[in-house]
Design brief:
Layout: H1 8-14, H2 16-24, H3 43-48, E1 51-56, H4 58-75, E2 79-83, H5 84-87, E3 98-104, H6 110-121, E4 125-130, H7 136-139, E5 143-146, H8 159-179, H9 184-195, H10 197-206, H11 209-217, E6 223-228, H12 232-247, E7 250-255, E8 272-276, H13 284-299, E9 303-309, E10 321-325, H14 334-351
Parallel strand pairs: 1-2, 1-3, 3-4, 4-5, 6-7, 6-8, 8-9, 9-10
The structure holds 5-amino-5-deoxy-1-O-phosphono-D-mannitol (M6R).
The site of 5-amino-5-deoxy-1-O-phosphono-D-mannitol has 16 residues, from helix 4.
């Protein structure tokens, strides 16, 4: 069943280019227009939406955090993202013009299910992004966009996450298309870039041996920090979550701009810090700020592990290790920058003798409260 792979997680990481391509299949028309009639929410209603709220748990919540950047940029609709376990127990402001997006691989996560019920009781429309056909969350939603990752067996989510991102981008771009935004041309370009993204993921996977070697060298580390900005921030959170659940190591993700507000006190000689660097093109301010963050922590002894775009030589003087990822538009970068972090956590877990597919204390689907 593992098709020659050491674990389901290894297999599922390797399947990501296909999972991403399958999730795009049939959803992009010949002229680059998005074909999402399957949502069955009339365009007129989508034009009325004045707020999007994403609810999800764990890794799916991280996909939601990234979705916010895409939705607000391409549609100019305000978007909130909240762990379903928090949302369901408070009194959120919702109405018929709020579109609630519930993201779940399994479609059975109790907190996410309760959050969507909470939203529907208040008249909101719920769109599920889900990987499991016919599961409870899509059944109870008004609409569903299925991710086509195929069955995900390993407890740690990998290929489902990448396809959740693709689905979130599709929803954001589709909302932009239906409503018409000033980013029309950009949207066309991004759709073309999305169509080529599976190849970029494939290229990242083809060169993971240095990441594995690096992970093995860190098997004795106590703490690993992850830093990012913009969409790289949720990627940092996801990198830290993967490391916690698989390697049972203390790991934390931070917004790099928050460093000097506290976390930098943690930095000491030899501390491994993984930094997700945005593209130097486009939003170059972000890039330059993160390069100075890397310099700050390195000056305090951190061992800097930098995920950067191919050709970005500005990181070389301050990086102890560089992992190169293909040139990708900023908003889509999480599709390539997450992959080395998955491989890193998986290899560290193996090096520490942990059971990769079944980490201790965890269940694949949390169907209890
Ligand atoms: O099935 P779901 O996507 O609703 O699951 C949500 C979380 O339980 C899940 O993503 C969890 O955080 C994973 N173990 C992370 O790798």
């Amino acid at each position: 069943e593992k098709g020659g792979h050491a674990s389901f997680m290894h297999k599922e990481i390797a399947e990501q280019p296909r999972a991403v391509a399958d999730t795009l299949l049939g959803r992009i028309g010949a002229d680059g227009e998005l074909l999402l009639d399957e949502l069955r929410i009339p365009a007129a209603e989508l034009r009325e939406v004045d707020k999007v709220v994403v609810v999800a748990c764990g890794t799916a919540f991280h996909a939601g955090l990234i979705a916010k950047y895409a939705i607000e940029h391409w549609t100019r609709i305000p978007c909130e993202v909240e762990p379903a376990s928090e949302f369901r127990h408070r009194d959120p402001i919702l109405d018929a013009r709020t579109l609630v997006v519930a993201v779940s691989q399994s479609g059975e996560t109790m907190d996410t299910l309760m959050a969507l019920r909470h939203a529907r009781e208040q008249g909101s429309r719920v769109l599920a992004i889900c990987n499991t056909n016919g599961s409870t969350i899509p059944r109870e939603s008004d609409a569903v966009l299925y991710t086509h990752a195929g069955p995900e067996v390993a407890v740690a989510s990998t290929k489902a996450f990448l396809t959740q991102l693709v689905a979130c981008y599709l929803v954001a771009l589709y909302l932009g298309q239906v409503r018409g935004t000033k980013w029309g041309d950009e949207i066309q370009g991004v759709v073309r870039d999305l169509a080529g993204i599976a190849g970029a993921v494939e290229r990242v996977l083809a060169d993971m041996e240095p990441v594995r070697a690096l992970a093995r060298s860190l098997a004795g580390a106590g703490t690993v920090l992850f830093l990012g900005r913009h969409v790289g921030y949720p990627v940092a959170l996801e990198g830290a979550l993967k490391l916690k659940e698989l390697a049972y190591m203390h790991a934390e993700g931070f917004a790099a701009g928050e460093l000097k507000h506290g976390p930098i006190a943690l930095v000491e000689e030899g501390l491994p810090v993984v930094v997700v660097v945005p593209s130097p093109r486009g939003r170059s301010v972000l890039h330059d700020k993160i390069v100075s963050n890397i310099q700050e922590i390195r000056a305090r002894g951190a061992r800097t592990i930098v995920i950067a775009e191919e050709g970005d030589e500005t990181v070389l003087p301050c990086a102890d290790h560089v992992v190169w990822v293909p040139v990708t538009p900023t908003l889509l970068q999480p599709l390539v920058t997450t992959v080395p972090l998955q491989v890193f956590a998986c290899e560290l877990a193996v090096a520490r003798g942990n059971e990769v597919d079944q980490p201790r204390n965890l269940a694949k689907s949390v169907t209890v409260e």
